[in-house]
């Protein structure tokens, strides 16, 4: 089984622009490709897991999300980095679009996306990390025995100031700082 680094998308890998609804609005953080390449070189599988509430709200079409994720993977591949999978949740219990109005096991902080990725990609969640800009990302890590890290990009600074922060929560400036922390711990590769 392999170790993984799960990444939230908006605010962690790319600039959060609200509901990302056009390809030209995708702006990767300048360190994102380098961070993923370094994690790959250390033996980690990198997986993106993202809530896409804009689909449930009728602001973004689901085929666009798929197209955007294909573009994201191509950009990383062009930079010598590999994203092993991208998983997204289009659901919301209060969705305006009836087809997406459900309580599911994939919407973070539920752990369904991580569990699905683990099953499909042969990942050891207990030796993995979840990096994101919201406490819900850290919470999903705790559910599966992974290590959660909050980045200060995106909503991270606001989230960090909120009450209810887990006592042992790791907070770092951005994805490259998270990568340095992960690499210092040196748990990549497979068993």
Distance between the termini: 6 Å
CATH topology value: Rossmann fold
User: Which blocks of ≥5 consecutive residues have pLDDT under 50?
Assistant: none
The level of helicity is 25-40%
Explain what you see.
With 191 residues, the protein is of the alpha/beta class. It has a single domain (4-185), classed as HAD superfamily/HAD-like (Rossmann fold), CATH 3.40.50.1000. The chain has 7 helices and 6 strands. It has a 6-stranded parallel sheet, sandwiched between helices. Helix 5 (135-144) links the parallel strand 4 (129-132) and strand 5. The termini are close together. The mean pLDDT is 95.
Question: Brief overview, please?
Answer:
This protein has 191 residues and is an alpha/beta fold. Helices cover 36% and strands 15% of the residues.
Give the key terms.
Rossmann fold; globular; 191 residues; six-stranded parallel beta sheet
Summarize the helices and strands and which ones pair or pack.
Blueprint: E1 4-7, H1 32-41, E2 45-51, H2 53-56, H3 62-78, E3 85-89, H4 112-121, E4 129-132, H5 135-144, E5 147-151, H6 156-161, E6 170-172, H7 175-185
Parallel strand pairs: 1-2, 1-4, 2-3, 4-5, 5-6
Helix pairs in contact: 1-7
